[in-house]
Amino acid sequence: MLNRRHIRIKVMQSLYMMQQSNSENIQIGEKFLDTSINDVQDLYLLVMTILVEIRKKEEEYISLAQKKHLATSAELNPNKRLVENRVLLLLENSVSITSKVEEKKLTQWSVYDNYISLLLEEIKESEVYQHYMAKSNVTFDDDRQFVVDIFTDIVAPNEKIYSFFEDYKLTWLDDLPVINTIIQKQLKNLKERDVQVFVPKTFKDDEDADFAKNLYRKTILNFQEFFKEFEHKTPNWDTDRIAEIDTIILRMAICEMLKFSSIPVKVTINEYLEIAKEYSTPKSSIFINGVLDNISKAYAEEGRLNKIGKGLL
Predict the structure, then answer these.
(1) Closest to 254 in 3D by CA, of 280, 281, 291, 309
(2) Cα–Cα distance between 285 and 301 in angstroms, integer?
């Protein structure tokens, strides 16, 4: 679920939290990192189950309308295409999803069901919905495309949902685009023969899990030493005025150069430049690129880059 760049961002956030709190307790930062990483799966489940709850909410509305004392013909004989959508039912009946939701006791949508109602209303006002409901009959491919479209155009970009997740857990705001992309891809790849949708693992493999833990530990255990590596290599920049997040990015990049033998230097520099563009000042990426380029060349000349594999320097 998490790629290497997102793992780096998680580590950066944990180191920033430690620096802001002036804490020297390494375990506090590591606990923050672990929680932040584990919470990603909760976010995935909550976003995915929005679609399940939308179907349930429509089914509830239909049931209530049919029980009206003076129900209209349309209310007594409603178009049930949305509640009978095979993809939505597949999501609702997926043991992989339901068991995880129960295990983690994720009951947010039963408490904040107003968000589900708002989304359902927006869906019903959309052209996608009108076109889907007007079809004389639908195939599984039609059901799937409808779900992909409402997720992509209505659910994923919804500002109220973004605000809800941001208020609930601050780190989720950075995770949401990643989760939305994963879910969109899963939905597009669903087949009629599928019996359930599997919840993806947080890490691709054990190597990525170890990378997250080791990058945090090795950076924080050498925090001051890594600062000295670039302290006098910024002649045009006052080190006291370098953005705090930039000093963390530089430390992490230096850590990768010196402590992670299998990661090419170019990959390290490119990854942290992209992170700086997103999380730091407008000029930070230029500054970081210059510093890391000079440092990597100096390390190569000094023989300090002990990289394993052809072309890793």
Answers:
(1) 291
(2) 24
What is the number of domains present in the chain? 2
Is position 216 within any domain?
no
Nearby residues of 254 by Cβ (< 8 Å), 6 or more positions away: 226, 229, 230, 292, 295
DSSP per-residue codes, 12-43: HHHHHHHHHHT---HHHHHHHHHHHHHHHHHH
pLDDT band, very low/low/confident/very high, at 233 (cuts 50, 70, 90): confident
Whether 57 and 130 share a structural domain: yes
Strands (E), the chain: none
- Residue 235: predicted pLDDT: 57
Cβ–Cβ < 8 Å for 113, 53: yes
CA distance 308 to 297: 17
Q: Please state the pTM of the whole predicted model.
A: 0.91
307 lies in a domain? no
Question: Would you tell me how many other CB atoms lie within 10 Å of the CB of residue 209?
Answer: 16
Tokens coding 240: 């006291």
Q: Give me the amino acid identity at 39.
A: D
Give the whole-angstrom CA distance, residue 294 versus residue 282: 20
**Model confidence pLDDT, tens digit, residues 39-50:** 999 999 999 999
Tell me: do 158 and 50 sit in the same domain: yes
Q: Pick the residue with more confidence: 237 or 76?
A: 76
Q: What pLDDT was estimated at residue 237?
A: 56
Check residue 240 and give its pLDDT.
57
- Separation of alpha carbons 218 and 264, rounded Å: 17
Top mean pLDDT of 23-27, 145-149, 243-247, 283-287 is at: 145-149
CATH number of the domain encompassing residue 292: 1.10.940.10
User: Residue 285: which domain range?
Assistant: 222-301
Residues 35 and 172 in one domain: yes
